[in-house]
Amino acid sequence: MTALTVRDATAADHPAILALNLESVDLMSPMDAQRLRELDREAAYHRAVCDGDEVVGFLLALREGAAYDSPNYLWFGERYPAFLYVDRIAVAASHRGRRLGGLLYDDLFGFARDGGFERIACEFYIVPFNQASSRFHARYGFAEVGTQWVAEGRKQVSLQIAPVAADA
Question: What is the pTM of this model?
Answer without folding.
Answer: 0.93
